[in-house]
User: What shape does this take?
Amino acid sequence: MVSNSAQDSKGAAMVGEYLSIKNALVADHTDAAAKAGGKLVTALDSFDVSDFSDAQQTELKDIIVDAKEQAEHISDSPMEHQREHFKTLSKDVTDMVAIIGADMKLYEQFCPMYDGGSTWLSASNEVKNPYYGSKMLTCGKVQKEIN
Assistant: This one.
C-alpha cells in the first residue's frame, strides 16, 4: 500500500460511507442508507488509483465501477433492495480494502442465514446484522480481523 495521506483519507471516506450504510441497515433506516449510498458514490468517484501498480489499478477500477453501481441502487431503493445490493457492495469494499488497506481495525462478519450466507465489514467486533436489522440483530459471527 502506498502511504499518501490524501489518498488514505479518500480510502477512509469510502470505508466510512460504507460503514454508514451498514449502520443504517442495522437500524432499519432506509433514508439514512440511501443518503450514505449517495455519499459513497461521491467518495468512489474521487478515489485516485494512480498510486497503485498497473494490476492493482485495473482491479481497483473494476471494483469501483461495481461498487458505484451498488451504492447508486442503495441510494434509491427500498430497504429490501438496499440489503440485496449491500451484499455485493460488501464484497467490493472488502476486495478494495485488501488492496488499499484501512486506517482502522475492521471485522469481517458473516450471517449464515441471508441469501445462502453473506458477509459485511464492521468497525466493531460486536455483531449487528445489516441484512436483517431488528429482526435478527445479532445473527452472525466475526470471521476475521482486518488490520
Remarks:
- Strands lie at 106-111, 118-122, 141-146.
